[in-house]
Design a protein that fits this description.
The complex is a heterodimer of chains A (516) and B (243). Chain A is mainly α and 516 residues long. Chain A contains 24 helices and 8 strands. In chain A, strand 7 (472-475), helix 23 (478-487) and strand 8 (498-500) form a beta-alpha-beta unit. The structure holds iron/sulfur cluster (2 copies).
């Protein structure tokens, strides 16, 4: 592990102490993302340098967003500063920087909104804290809106449902338009547009990788478990985060999906054109970018003439897929008959399956129908818990009932592992704590905030480890997996504590179809 | 003189409140919600979503989960305010319906509860360091204004009684555009002045949360994105021009 350049927060014995930290102003004021280079900005149509009229551009775009989005307008107006959200953000809990309290983060934008867009702020800025949009304010936005993982935990607890994620998305979009883009997210978006995935893995390399994985699967199972690519006429298109193709433990999840498809005898394929479920357009709140990325999946589905679209383990990707794909690219059901754009795809899709469908929904359905059988003793060396990813828990669903996104993954894990224990109630389900690396923060220069933001989760994990002999934690998100792999060692936990859900499924799944 | 001043004041305050709030509500209603963003788990039907919003409005359900102290004080304040407003309705209707007669004593207890809850909220605002950090001058002033309204009302009841029959005649007269004299008792005038101020501030302040709570997409949207294609007008336009 690299040298620790900041203090690692001690995991408190008394968890109450964790949940009521005193404000320590400016504690993380110096933790800043790298700015995007001109090249990365321009690839997305944003200014490469900060233009002279950046303030006019920022304010004009602010106004556009207010007209475009009800949530932004209502949320900027409605906060009463009741303080209910102040102790709900993992970044505040981990750092104590008061600007990481959700309401204070919102206020960075709200103060500007009042000053420029409301009569109260224009006339009485002192009274209602109106604040001119200066260069200094932009810098502060850049810092603290990149210390928000857009996890929506604050929204759950706010009496008006004010969602800081909506605010931070809007703020980042304004930053981009005014030339203050963030390197990590914008560089990756450029790669998706150019190559088709976040890693910039070109088609031939992907093909090689998959062949290698098929070999691994053959060695492990003695069976011909395929990972097909670009198969026209396959029933199912699997869209998965590109980290699944090479990173640990992601790749074990991918092999798990392959085993499920194999055992169920389903016809499926990956696509080199849409080799990425992730959609970083959401992180910068930019509808056009988000649409452009989502349309690659539409194009692949049309080209390969698939009937179903299934999404692999990824949190924000599942939010975009489940909640936004239908809007952005017509990937779903229920479009009007005269909605030609959406109908072009929807008429091709099988109405008997949800579109998009989560890989966990697919596996669960097969398990319910008795198509898949599990032998959980295969995982007897493991004590397992489950980390609900924010975007899955609070911004999507699985199955037909509300809350299925919590129950279905657990049902799969319980079938696969005998020693399964949940972490404390206040840290799971829709109250789950972010891994600390979501929302476009998974970059090395933000390591301090990532490590500290993981504290509440690590605290709960430690507790189940001590009390229930838990040794591993499963996740269904590429970012969570990458983040924990990096961050857990700071807390003296092994990096391979984190596993993929379908890795557990893959271990336990009985692959004896051929023998029946 | 007093009568005319207060008559005009209340016409103006009412006009500002209604027009300001109406304009804001229209703006919220007209602004599209381009994406499906309910905080999940969310109800899957419109009716379910309406119930969810009703729970927030009547019981402050999210706040209850969040922080029991803020919930207790905030909810007590709002319920008390409602009872106090109901008690005051008798100044605006003739004859007074039986329900309003029943409400009268509750409205009175509620006035004490209201002031106490506001004081409690203020103490927390000053005493809890996190709350102190997020509090601005307008937050203090709003609490001061509400407490002053409650206290001056109680003072009229217990310390400086006024001719409430005349007060009622004044308000009924206002509504019929047939002005009747308003008693010139200082405590009454202070009370009315503060109420008018509150009415004027309403559409320009955080009191807009009263409208906002109904328009919050994370609470009022049903969870149906896979079954229904949502498309904002500007997004549809984008789709047309892009192809
Ligand atoms: S809980 Fe909501 S209303 Fe209360 S301070 Fe936080 S954002 Fe504002
Ligand atoms: S969305 Fe999550 S990270 Fe952002 S302020 Fe809210 S709780 Fe914190």
């Amino acid at each position: 592990m690299s040298k620790k350049e900041f203090d690692i927060p001690a995991v408190p014995k008394d968890s109450e102490a964790l949940f009521t930290p005193e404000p320590k102003p400016d504690a993380t004021a110096s933790v800043r993302s790298y700015p995007a280079s001109a090249q990365h900005q321009e690839a997305l149509g944003f200014p490469g340098e900060i233009p002279d009229d950046w303030q006019d551009r920022a304010l004009a775009h602010f106004e556009t967003l207010l007209e475009r989005s009800r949530s932004l307008r209502v949320y900027l107006d409605s906060c009463v500063r009741c303080g209910a959200c102040t102790d709900k953000c993992h970044y505040y809990l981990g750092t104590g920087d008061p600007k990481n309290m959700p309401v204070a983060r919102q206020d960075l934008m709200r103060d500007v909104y009042r000053r420029h867009f409301t009569p109260a702020g224009r006339n009485f800025p002192g009274l209602v804290r109106g604040r001119e949009l200066t260069r200094e304010v932009m810098d502060e936005w850049f810092t603290y809106f990149h210390q928000c993982s857009q996890c929506r935990r604050c929204s759950v607890y706010c009496p008006y449902g004010i969602d800081t994620a909506e605010i931070s998305m809007a703020a980042r979009e304004i930053l981009d338009v005014a030339g203050f883009g963030q390197k990590y997210v914008n560089e990756i978006l450029g790669k998706v547009h150019k190559i088709g995935n976040n890693l910039g893995l070109p088609g031939p390399a992907l093909e090689d990788t998959l062949e290698g994985l098929e070999e691994d699967l053959r060695d492990e199972t003695g069976l011909d478990v395929k990972i097909p690519l670009d198969v026209e006429g396959a029933d199912i298109l699997l869209v998965t985060p590109s980290a699944d193709f090479f990173a640990e433990p992601h790749v074990d999840g991918l092999m798990g999906y392959a085993k499920v498809f194999h055992q169920a005898g389903l016809s499926w394929t990956l696509s080199s054109h849409a080799a990425e479920a992730g959609n970083f357009g959401m992180f910068i709140g930019n509808y056009e970018q988000m649409k452009k990325v989502a349309e690659r999946i539409r194009e692949a589905a049309l080209k390969l003439k698939v009937k179903r679209i299934v999404v692999g383990e990824c949190g924000h990707a599942w939010r975009v897929a489940y909640s936004f794909w239908n809007t952005l690219a017509g990937i779903g059901h229920g479009a009007d008959e005269n909605d030609e754009y959406a109908r072009a795809l929807q008429n091709q899709l099988d109405p008997n399956y949800p579109v998009p469908q989560h890989i966990c929904e697919l596996t669960y359905d097969l398990m319910q129908r008795g198509v898949l059988k599990f032998d959980p003793t295969a995982n007897d060396h493991i004590g397992l818990t489950f980390h609900d990813s924010c975007n899955v828990a609070r911004a999507s669903r699985m199955g037909d009932k509300p809350g299925g996104q919590m129950e279905i993954p657990r049902a799969l894990l319980r079938a696969s592992v005998r020693n399964f224990h949940d972490m404390a109630d206040s840290t799971i389900g829709d109250a789950t704590f972010c891994c600390g690396g979501g929302g476009g923060l998974l970059t090395d220069e933000l390591m301090e905030i990532r490590v500290k933001g993981a504290l509440p989760r690590v605290n709960a994990l430690r507790e189940t480890m001590e009390e229930h002999g838990v040794t591993h934690m499963a996740a269904i998100c590429a970012i969570c997996k990458a983040q924990f792999t990096k961050v857990l060692p700071y807390y003296d936990l092994p990096m391979d504590t984190i596993v993929s859900l379908h890795q557990m499924v893959g271990n336990a799944l009985r692959l004896d179809r051929g023998e029946i | 003189m007093v009568t005319a001043t207060f008559a005009i004041l209340f016409y103006a305050a009412t006009a500002i409140l209604l027009a300001g709030l109406g304009a804001r509500i229209m703006l919220y209603a007209r602004t599209p919600a381009p994406l499906s963003i309910p905080t999940t788990p969310a109800p899957t039907s419109r009716g379910g979503a309406a119930l969810r919003v009703a729970g927030e409005v009547a019981l402050f359900s999210s706040l209850f989960r969040s922080n029991k102290w803020i919930w207790l004080l905030g909810w007590a304040f709002h319920v008390a305010l409602l009872l106090v407003l109901l008690r005051h309705l008798r100044y605006f209707v003739e004859p007074v319906p039986q329900v309003l007669v029943w409400v009268q004593p509750f409205g009175l207890y509620a006035a004490f509860a209201m002031v106490a809850a506001l004081a409690g909220l203020w103490i927390r605002r000053i005493g809890v360091s996190r709350l102190r950090y997020i509090t601005g001058p307008s937050d203090h002033l709003m609490l001061a204004l509400l407490i002053a309204i409650g206290a001056s009302g109680l003072a009229i009841k217990y310390l400086a009684p006024t001719d409430i029959v005349a007060v009622k005649a004044f308000f009924l007269g206002l509504m019929r555009f047939d002005w009747q004299p308003l008693p010139a008792d200082p405590m009454l005038l202070i009370h009315l002045l503060l109420v008018a101020l509150l009415m004027v501030l309403f559409p320009f302040s955080k009191l807009l949360h009263a409208a906002g709570v109904f328009f919050s997409p994370t609470r009022n949207q049903p969870d149906t994105p896979r079954e229904r294609r949502r498309l904002a007008p500007w997004a549809a336009e984008l789709e047309r021009t892009n192809r």
